[in-house]
């Protein structure tokens, strides 16, 4: 074959027969892969050390919901916290600082129902807390109550 004829053969389109599949290219990349699932049952277990309320929320979940943007979620968290603390009063002593800091922070919420639920929760807590327990937190409570905190 002449050089010119060889060059023309390189650029000729291969005509395919009807019903035949297109042949695989020599430099085709195999894209097959296999997958397997990973089972980690230890991570899916619930932490049974903290008591939960009737909605299966523990104190950490309820306190974290106080930062939610939705007023209904905040109010529900305050009511759930009141329910949880009435069922398990020993939680009050263990988590008093977290409870007071989160509840006093929602005193200045825009929604009146959230503020009312926060006040009701503190009224519920007041007889259950001794004066020496709440005295370190009095500036915090007073500060948020008068809205002079940031």
Task: Walk me through this protein's architecture.
- By secondary structure, the protein is mainly alpha-helical.
- The mean pLDDT is 82.
- Helix 4 runs parallel beside helix 7 and helix 6 packs parallel to helix 9.
- It has a domain of 87 residues.
- It contains nine helices and no strands.
- It starts with a helix and ends in a 5-residue tail after the last helix.
- Helices cover 51% and strands 0% of the residues.
Write the layout of secondary structure elements.
Elements: H1 3-10, H2 41-44, H3 59-64, H4 71-87, H5 90-94, H6 96-105, H7 112-125, H8 131-134, H9 138-145
Helix pairs in contact: 4-7, 6-9
């Amino acid at each position: 074959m002449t050089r010119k004829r060889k060059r023309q053969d390189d650029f000729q389109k291969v005509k395919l027969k009807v019903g035949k599949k297109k042949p695989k290219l020599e430099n085709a990349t195999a894209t097959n892969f296999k997958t397997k699932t990973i089972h980690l049952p230890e991570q899916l277990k619930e932490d049974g050390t903290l008591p939960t309320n009737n909605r299966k929320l523990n104190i950490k979940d309820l306190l974290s919901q106080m930062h939610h943007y939705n007023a209904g979620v905040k109010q529900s968290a305050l009511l759930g916290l009141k329910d949880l603390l009435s069922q398990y009063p020993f939680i009050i002593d263990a988590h008093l600082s977290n409870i007071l800091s989160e509840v006093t922070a929602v005193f200045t919420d825009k929604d009146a129902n959230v503020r009312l639920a926060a006040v009701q929760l503190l009224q519920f807590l007041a007889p259950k807390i001794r004066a020496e327990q709440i005295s370190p937190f009095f500036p915090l409570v007073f500060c948020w109550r008068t809205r002079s905190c940031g």
